[in-house]
Design a protein that fits this description.
This protein is mainly α. The protein is 79% helix and 3% strand. It has 22 helices and four strands. The radius of gyration is 26 Å and the shape is globular.
């Protein structure tokens, strides 16, 4: 007797139905597989981290080693990004809400983002190796922290700028409804900041890929420290002039970047569309097949109902009760907090004074010729950075606006920009450098090309984020009144993206100074190419273990960046917060 097709299909479906809440197991297989794969990747890396130090790791250029190297690099980047996200949100929140702390924290952020990755290398690696002298964990944590220093600053700037530009009517509504700080953060501040934070997250991860070669294979004095990963693979291939290995490494890296874009960033962009500050919903919105698949899942809503929602409600209830029970007459806790603040300030001041004295003693060993070299290098790097910012702004503003205003174009151009921003220019630089040398340009032109490759994306991604956040109703008003193109740019587009543009130029400036360490000093086929600049001085001092020169060049670079930020960008930040916010 032949079974009816519909009945047979129903029986097959019943065999693969999850017993709880009628969840189809076949539909959830990709989600479960992804979760188990991530768990296995963490276990694999944890096993390596717990292994004893085995000396200098050998980097194989065999193609078969690339999947394992890609896995190690992705886990390091993920850990560094999660650390960067937590730091950016916490740091930006405190700086935006505490005016007294913000006066110190924002200039400190300017200083930290101006310090190149290689300047963090000696203290970070020495500290991590000293903490874990017998395990690979020390070098691995050092690599993660180095990637963190290349990712975090633009995310912190973005979150801080978003909090400072929240419209006044939204803040007033939160005060009228007597929201607790937690409610304001979860329901107003974090959603309003999501789009800018998301696009800067993509830029941060792209920056992590850019500096991966420096963070997985580095020289500290007479010690050659390296970790298995895509960055060390590409660096080894570039040092040996192995073009075939470079192409294979770049192919795998681009493949990984595309997968991350399709399964992480594209769903996040489509999901973040609901946080746009607008009264009219756009008819053309970003789409993601991965997000659609997750929305049709039954396992994730079940997990949300049973775990996430109860935890979120308990946290919200706790902060709401605490907010309701707060009394202005609590003088004792306030006095205690003041004493704690005074003691903490005194301890920090004492520690900084000791460090300052040691720094001055180290800087006192520099000779006059070395000081002149620093000043000349600072002037040369400053001119390169400013020229790079001008060239980058010429094309990123119109192109970024076009991508941000057209979601269909964004679905095509954003992954391409993500790939282009993520591919380490240092891997392509040997080929570019040889072509420029043959053409007579040399490293002078090559350094500007490399600075552009590592810097222009900060501006582009922030412009895209700003254009994506422009309310649809304002754009429809321009269409309704038939504004000419120039008036549309002058009255809507440029004012709307202005806060994002300032953030983009600040982070691009810091990124350009950071990228100068690889743009002005390059090794290829056992030969070193260098050009006058602070970046070259820092790279050479790191290789030679010359800590006095490294410290002096880093301090000088930080002073230049902070001075420019205080005289120019900080004033533009205040202008963006007072004149160019979406409020009535």
């Amino acid at each position: 007797m032949r079974a009816h097709p519909a009945a047979l299909s129903e029986r097959l479906a019943s065999l693969v139905r999850f017993p709880l809440h009628g969840v189809s197991l076949l539909r959830e297989v990709p989600i479960l597989a992804g979760g188990f794969a991530a768990f296995y990747a963490v276990l694999l890396l944890a096993q390596r981290w717990a292994s004893p130090v085995s000396g200098q790791a050998e980097i194989s250029l065999a193609v078969a080693a690339l999947p394992k190297y890609a896995l190690f690099s992705v886990v390091r980047l993920t850990l560094a990004y999660l650390l960067s996200l937590a730091f950016a949100i916490g740091y930006g929140y405190i700086a935006a809400h505490n005016e007294r702390a913000g006066r110190f924290m924002v200039p400190l952020l300017d200083t930290l983002q101006s310090i190149p990755v290689l300047s963090f290398l000696p203290p970070v690696m020495i500290a991590m190796v000293a903490l874990f002298p017998t395990r690979e964990l020390g070098i691995e944590l050092g690599s993660v922290l180095l990637i963190f220093t290349g990712q975090v600053w633009n995310m912190a700037f973005s979150f801080y700028a978003s909090l400072k530009s929240i419209p006044a009517e939204m803040r007033e509504a939160a005060e009228i409804y007597r929201w607790s700080r937690w409610q304001k953060f979860i329901q107003m501040e974090l959603p309003y900041s999501t789009i800018g934070l998301l696009w800067n997250s993509m830029m941060s991860v792209a920056g992590g890929w850019f500096f991966l070669m420096a963070c997985e294979m580095f020289v500290l004095g007479d010690r050659d420290l390296r970790l298995p990963g895509l960055g060390s693979y590409l660096q080894t291939a570039a040092n040996q002039g192995n073009t075939r290995a470079i192409l294979w490494g770049l192919t795998v890296m681009i493949g990984v970047i595309i997968l991350i874009d399709q399964f992480i960033w594209r769903p996040a962009i489509a999901w973040a569309e609901k946080f746009k500050f607008e009264q009219v919903e756009a008819s053309d919105v970003p789409r993601s097949f991965a997000l659609d698949f997750l929305r049709h899942s039954r396992l994730l809503p079940a997990f949300n109902r049973s775990v996430v929602r109860p935890a979120r409600e308990r946290i919200g209830l706790y902060f709401a009760r605490r907010h309701a029970n707060q009394s202005v007459s609590d003088a004792a806790p306030g006095e205690t907090r003041r004493w704690i603040a005074w003691l903490s300030t005194a301890a920090i001041t004492l520690a900084l004074s000791i460090l300052l004295l040691r720094m001055l003693a180290l800087l006192g060993s520099l000779r006059g010729a070395e000081l002149r070299e620093l000043l000349v290098g600072a002037g040369a790097s400053f001119l390169r950075v400013e020229l790079t910012l001008a060239l980058a702004g010429l094309w990123t503003i119109p192109v970024g606006m076009m991508i941000g205003l057209h979601p269909k174009l964004s679905a095509i151009a954003q992954p391409a920009a993500q790939v282009a921003a993520s591919v380490p220019a240092t891997a392509l630089f040997p080929v570019i450098l040889l072509l420029l040398i043959r053409a007579g340009g040399g490293l002078g032109v090559g350094s500007i090309v490399l600075l552009l490759l590592g810097t222009q994306w900060y501006i582009l991604f922030n412009v895209i984020a700003g254009a994506s956040a422009i309310p649809t109703d304002l754009r429809e008003v321009c269409n309704l009144y038939r504004f000419p193109r120039w008036e549309r740019w002058r009255d809507l587009l440029l004012p709307a993206i202005f806060p994002y543009l300032v953030t983009g130029f600040i982070t691009a400036s810091g990124g350009a100074w950071n990228a100068s360490i690889v743009a002005e000093y390059s090794r290829f086929q056992n030969q070193t190419y260098t050009v006058t600049g602070l970046g070259a001085i820092i790279s050479r001092a790191t290789d030679q273990g010359d800590f006095a020169m490294l410290l002096a060049a880093t301090i000088l670079m930080a002073l230049i960046v902070v001075t420019v930020n205080r005289l120019l960008w900080r004033r533009l930040y205040r202008l963006a917060a007072t004149r160019f916010t979406l409020e009535s």
